[in-house]
Amino acid sequence: MAIDKSMNVLIVDDYKTMLRIIRNLLKQIEFNNVEEASDGAEALQKLRKGNFGLVISDWNMEPMTGLQLLQEVRADSRLRATPFIMVTAESKAENVVAAKAAGVSNYIVKPFNAETLKDKIEKVLNHA
User: How far apart are CA 34 and CA 95, in angstroms?
Assistant: First the structure.
């Protein structure tokens, strides 16, 4: 199935360098409509106002974590079906289990490259 690369993608990370890296990786795989949020609360506001086809969020953020953001998205009837990829530097089993229980679409462990990101996005969007 062809993936709509013109969709709006929201990337969420409290680390500006990581936002830039993810934006550049998305650009490499031809996703150009990318918006940024620096924490879960800002991301939730943007999600409720906008129309996003995908969320790529860091796990470790203050004051609202990626997991809390995911839980808010899944609890919102309008946002519930939005594909959500969690990015983390930790590959702890309990984190993966918690994210899966909260309804994460997929999981990426840092560091990662454009090919890994492309693969995860394709898996998520082809099952959406």
Answer: 26
Angle of CA points 45, 55, 3, to nearest 5°: 135
For the whole model, what pTM was predicted?
Answer: 0.95
Quick: pLDDT tens for 54-84.
999 999 998 999 999 999 999 999 999 999 9
How many angstroms separate the CA atoms of 63 and 61, rounded? 6
CB 104, CB 85: distance < 8 Å: yes
* Torsion-angle region of 9 (φ positive above 0: left; ψ -120 to 50: alpha; else: beta): beta
41/62 Cα distance (integer angstroms): 9
State the burial class of residue 29 (Cβ atoms within 10 Å of its Cβ: 0-12, 13-18, 19+). Answer: middle
Average pLDDT of the chain to the nearest whole number: 94
